[in-house]
Amino acid sequence: MYGRYTRSLGEYAREQAAELRELQKNNKREEKIRNKELRSYRGKWTSRLFRVVSYTWRHTFAKIGEDWIFLALLGSIMALLSYIMDYGVSLCNTARMWMYFELTNDPAVRYLSWICLPVFLVLFSAGFVYLLAPQAIGSGIPEMKTILRGVVLKEYLTFRTGIAKIVALTAVLGSGMPLGKEGPLVHIASIVATLMSKLVTSFKGIYENESRNSEMLAAACAVGVSCNFAAPIGGVLFSIEVTSVYFAIRNYWRGFFSAVFGALMFRLLAYWLETEETLTAMFRTDFRVDFPYDPHELFIYALIGAFGGLSGALFVLCHRKYVLFMRKNKRISSFLQKNRFIYPAVVSLFIATLYFPPGLGQFLVSTLTTRQQIMSLFSNFTWMSDDLTAEQSEIVSHWTNEYSNIFVTLGIYMATTFFLTVLASTLPVPSGSLIPIFKIGAAFGRIIGEAMHLWFPEGIRIGSVISPILPGGYAIVGAAAFSAGVTHSISICVVVSEMTGQIQHIIPVLVAVLVSNAISTLLQPSLYDSIIMIKKLPYLPGIISSSSAAYDIFVEDFMNRNIKYIWNGMTYQELKTVIKDKPKIRSFPLVDNPRHMVLLGSIQRGELIELVKRHIGHDRRVKVAAQRQIEIQSRSFGHVIPINLDPPPCCRLGETEESSLTHDPAKQQQQTSRFEVVKAPDDLGNGLITDTAIQRSSQQLQQLQLITLLPSPEPQTPVSIQSTETDEEAQPRKSILKKGNRFSSIRSKSSQQTIQTTPNSTITGSEGSIFIRQHKLNDMTPEEKKEWEESEMLKPVDFHKCHVDPAPFQLVERTSLLKVHSMFSLLGVNRAYVTTIGRLIGIVSLSELRKAIEDVNSGTLTRATVRSRLQSFAVGRHYPVVVSI
């Protein structure tokens, strides 16, 4: 009898546990699906790491000063990363030279040893980036220019992208490809700043506030440039020129502080690790100070600047034409997409073959590193002199051979590096172009300097003083001029001065840079703007000053009239549909109703997602389920629920013995055996225990469990449960539910004692020893949950529960294109709502504005062309065509 009852109880418990486990799995599965539909998911370990570091920051550095510590850490981290990458590149170059010079003298084996490492490193870099983060491909400055403009590029500032950029950049630079690292370092610095802002709780505003985010990213761009060239002042100015249209002066100190800290740590690391004797410039020069140049030479410097502007525009044009040719050729494009490693392998093999020292490499100085090449080009002695020291002869020996002289070698070096840089910059790897461009300009300047020394071997006479020609000064001017022609930046002259440690040639450098910039601006856009055009990034181009149509085109001529909006009184189901249909929209306009379209404000996407989740989430569903159980039990038993603790017939004690135990005080003091055999009552019939009796007992137990676990409407106040039986009559039931229960402690209590329970208590008063937690038990069944969610999603949305921006950026319909461009560029907004007397009639985003500016600049959008369009929209202008959800 006892075994039959316990088996029935065990089966019931297992069934309930299985149902609860299945219910919990369904809840987790639905939560994941909802998160995947409405927002991106962040990993569990990433979230834990963020919380730990945020807690540490909040209790340490945040008390000192957040901005200072943040910027100092940013500079230190970038200096360390830059030095580690340089060290890795140096190891790769050393290994390559060792394999070439030390292995064997067989030309075939030496050729294989020369090309195997570059090809392997390029393939590794391409594969690593493709598998981990394709966003790491390329320079990084064009994308950062777009991000600082206010555009959000997906997965571009993530940890995965940073790791891919660092590892792949080190590999591709170690392969010896004619590429640089200034652009990737800017990208890496921006990633580090973004990750640090996410880690710090007190800096949460940097990540959520667009204005503060732009400030820190601007400082990160300056750090990236300064850690590459060890030029803090030029790095700040260069980053402002190439990434910003309007720059806030309040961010000036942030950029300088972090850039100085990064450049200082970068040079200190080189000194501490004994790679440098002291803190010096990267490409130290020692030109004479008394007569560094003659005033007559300024004309030659201006000619160098003109050549730099023309050649810089040619470089940008060749790069864009080659990339577009590769993309427009469908056969080549489809073949390379299916075989992603063929193009990197072929290009790297071709470049490595050209750099092979016994071949064309003897004209390309392939046995010298990039730093050694620039240092030799900046040397302050003439290479054609007959009186050279041993050290000077060693430098000149790399630039001369038995087949040519210095001018031929420098010409081949300049032309080959020019086209190989264009070719290598199309590899699907992280890469920059400023260092190869710098070398090309320095080679041209060196040619002019050596020619000037050949024409004026004694120097230029100034009165009674003869000023000698310094070919290294011409090389510096040529490097600055060509770099300015490619990047369209004036600050490159400051970068060159800090890199070389020379201020004597600042006037010639400025003259050449200004001339180069003026010519290249008229011919071609900058390299970074050209890449923006190739990738079709959402960046606003400039309006041509001579275009008068910009004053005649208004915002109503190019705005988007098909608006996705939310309105007051919409249901949760309609709101969820709007969010799912437009996953890229970050903010939705709120109107009063679809008919009048009066703009009330705008709500961020995250706020709407949280609103829907709170309405049909797990916590609210559990509360509703518990309230339903309370209402059901209240209707069945009243406010005070009497619990019938009668044991089932199969295990009921004899009434005679129980009544005598209750009324006889002497017998109450005796210890009754728990296994006392009593006579079965007469209602058992022939003494057989039927299945109906066992089932009825299980039903009573289930009802008892439900009543026991029923939560109180006010959890702070214990629930009073009044028993209709004496404690002795409930003893067998308690002994079954809890082992080791002693009746002596219960007999000492009054028979009318009130049992104080908590929401998680069992019949015997134990907390959670048998039953599962309350919030799991009180959940709905899948059918009830589906029905409840459907009914809840049909209720109207209460927008008072979320934050509403009451004053979003608005434009009137007659705002000119020129004003719209100025406001978008100055304020950094991504969208603006177009209203007329408070009514929403359209929206303008960066894509519509960029298309309008391009059409105006090309002449396809004029007042005459939009006049017919306005007539077709005459009705729609006051009653816009709106797609309602």
UniProtKB/TrEMBL annotation:
InterPro entries reported in the protein's UniProt record: CBS_dom_sf, Cl-channel_core, Cl_channel_volt-gated, ClC
Keyword Transmembrane: yes
Transmembrane feature ranges: 68-91, 111-133, 216-240, 252-273, 298-319, 340-357, 406-425, 437-456, 476-497, 509-528
CDD domains associated with the record: ClC_1_like
MF term (GO), any: voltage-gated chloride channel activity
Keyword terms of this UniProt record: CBS domain, Chloride, Chloride channel, Coiled coil, Ion channel, Ion transport, Membrane, Repeat, Transmembrane, Transmembrane helix, Transport, Voltage-gated channel
Parts forming coiled coils: 13-40
Membrane disposition: Multi-pass membrane protein
Predominant cellular place of this UniProt entry's protein: membrane
Highest taxon above the source species: Eukaryota
GO biological process: chloride transport
Pfam families xrefs: Voltage_CLC
Cellular compartments per GO CC: chloride channel complex; plasma membrane
Region listing for Disordered, in residue ranges: 712-734
Subcellular location: Membrane
PANTHER family the UniProt entry points to: CHLORIDE CHANNEL PROTEIN 2 (PTHR45720:SF10)
Name of the protein described by the UniProt record: Uncharacterized protein
Organism for this UniProt entry: Daphnia pulex (Water flea)
Upper lineage: Eukaryota, Metazoa, Ecdysozoa, Arthropoda, Crustacea
